[in-house]
């Protein structure tokens, strides 16, 4: 039985590794594509949906932390699963937007411009780091490997929260420049 579990865990870790590499590659390719697909004007609202998703995710992450500190494990599990699901919805919206619309340039000047790019670059770099951490943390919780889950979330949680919050900040700063 342990051998079967180890084989399943290895396959799951391989899948997580593939997804952790494939997602950033697909996003990078999408950002580089100059010819965009026309799916209609509705795609122009996607940045606002993405901003809302990041806001809700940030709130859920903080609430999930509160719940686990209160030992409300089942509620914590539901809240964190919703945050995880929103991550998937975010990814779909993000890909759809960048597949159909050119990137928006930030128009601010002076110090605020440097601040925006610091937020944006740190957000992007840490989003690359957090994806495999969150996938593993969620997997460990799913298979009831709670000690591994706890050890990993010490790193995954603050990075995920930072990425979510900086996503909101970047959105609010670039919002006036969306066409």
Automatic annotation (TrEMBL):
* Official protein name in the record: DUF420 domain-containing protein
The protein's gene is named yozB
- Record keywords: Membrane included? yes
Q: Where are the transmembrane segments?
A: 12-33, 45-67, 79-97, 117-143, 155-174
- Keywords per UniProt: Membrane, Transmembrane, Transmembrane helix
Where does the source fall among the domains of life?
Bacteria
Q: Whose protein is this, by species? A: Emticicia aquatilis
């Amino acid at each position: 039985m342990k051998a079967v579990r180890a084989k399943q865990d290895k396959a799951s870790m391989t899948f997580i590794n593939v997804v952790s590499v494939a997602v950033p590659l697909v996003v990078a390719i999408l950002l580089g594509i100059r010819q965009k697909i026309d799916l209609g004007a509705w795609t122009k609202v996607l940045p606002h949906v993405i901003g809302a998703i990041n806001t809700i995710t940030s709130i859920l992450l903080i609430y999930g932390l509160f719940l686990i500190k209160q030992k409300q494990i089942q509620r914590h599990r539901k809240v964190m699963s919703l945050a995880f699901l929103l991550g998937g919805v975010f990814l779909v919206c993000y890909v759809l937007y960048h597949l159909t619309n050119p990137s928006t340039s930030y128009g601010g000047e002076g110090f605020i411009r440097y601040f925006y790019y610091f937020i944006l670059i740190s957000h992007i770099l840490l989003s690359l780091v957090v994806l495999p951490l969150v996938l593993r943390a969620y997997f460990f919780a799913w298979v009831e490997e709670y000690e591994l889950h706890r050890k990993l979330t010490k790193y995954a949680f603050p990075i995920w929260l930072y990425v979510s919050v900086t996503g909101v900040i970047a959105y609010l700063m670039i919002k006036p420049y969306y066409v």
